[in-house]
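Hello again,

I reread your note about wanting to compare the complex against the isolated chains. To keep things tidy I'm splitting this into two emails, and this first one only covers the full assembly. Below are the input lines as submitted, including protein chains and any nucleic acid or small-molecule components. They are followed by the predicted structure of everything together. The single-chain runs will come separately.
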Amino acid sequence: MDQSTSLPPRLAEILDDFALSDRQEKMELLLEFSAGLLPIPAGLVEPIGQPEPVPECMTPVTVYSHDQQGRLRFYFEIPPEAPTIRGYAAIIQQGLWDATPEEVLCIPDDFYLSMGLHHILSPQRLNGLIAIIGHVKRLAARALASSSSTHPTNL
Amino acid sequence: MSENRYAHPEYLVETAWVAEHLNDPSIRLVESNEDPLLYETGHIPGAVKVDWFTTLQHPLRRDFIDQSEFEALCSQLGISNDTTVVFYGDKHNWFACYAFWLFAYYGHVHLKIMNGGRAKWVAEGRPLTKDIPSYPPTQYRAKSPDASIRAFRDEVFRHMEQKLPLIDVRSPQEYSGELLHMPGYPQEGAQRGGHIPGAVNIPWAQAVNPENSTFKSPDELRTLFQNHGITPDKEIIAYCRIGERSSLTWFVLKYLLGYPKVKNYDGSWTEWGNLVNAPIEK
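Full-complex prediction:
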């Protein structure tokens, strides 16, 4: 996979696992990731902040980044009844664990295509996923521009 | 008949009824969610899953699975022609109503919605399991599609020209054209915003109690629709963005209020808002 070379190694590995799986296995993998989403560590984020009003069919998602000497860790607040979005967030969380802001900004927006997620998820879902990576990148851009340690953003 | 009674209460069951019928072989519970993985995290014991996108939609063209594919689906889920199928799901039963509508389209007779859906079952602390059940395949025979509950674009066009009632069940922002699509969801959007001329805006969620996802009382529902001139004597077409929210409105009008002539326009705004030369009102 050409794009793997520009991706953080753990993310490239996850994408390969998905690419090699059939539809059913992709669903199972996503479910496993969903169960492994790490909670926001106590004390990391101050008040969670008021999420932006969310139109009825969107899952309310809040993304946080934690900057440790130029290495980023992303945390997500997503309701338990949205396992698909949680699974996708966990892929980003694990795949970009301790990535530099520059690495995050280099990820292609359509990286989910190589995972074949468009075979199992509706266009509406995929757009939600694209929106999440967009917000993750915004946090990375802010991390580049600022030295402050915690940046909440709302989706 | 008491005024404050649903017109066809046999199409609605409560969670307690479902709990008492978990081992009834004449009943098949079907979970239909917006989130395609929610069933796998735990579901009502014995329930099977349908996914609106990967199970109910045609894999190639924009349409539902055809009659023979529907028969194969029912057979695989252990549903016979005389099985009572009870649907429930997330988001106030929104996709449960969508699945119900498709089953009605192919003529399945015994259909019910579990009032309050998945959220109410969970809130009441009722059991969930991750065990995926399997049932012996059946010899299912579907009927020809029931054209009386589905509207295609040409019919919607005539309906509009004759100034017959249309209900747009999307949010006020989508209805007004302020939003072309859900923020961040461009692929489900349309080239133009607004609504079909003459359509009234009755957002779908106004038919449910937000605190427990149950349907509002017959009186409340009757008032909601009649206040907008939507009365049982008329032919009515409901639509939203892809026909899923409007299938809940269709269920409410047809079964809870007993309106005889209601159709769901599943092409909805993602078709109309992209049609060249189609009239639009803002």
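For quick reference: The interface with chain A takes residues 34-38, 40-41, 52-54, 90-91, 118-119, 171, 173, 179, 182-188, 205, 242, 245 of chain B (CB under 8 Å).

B.
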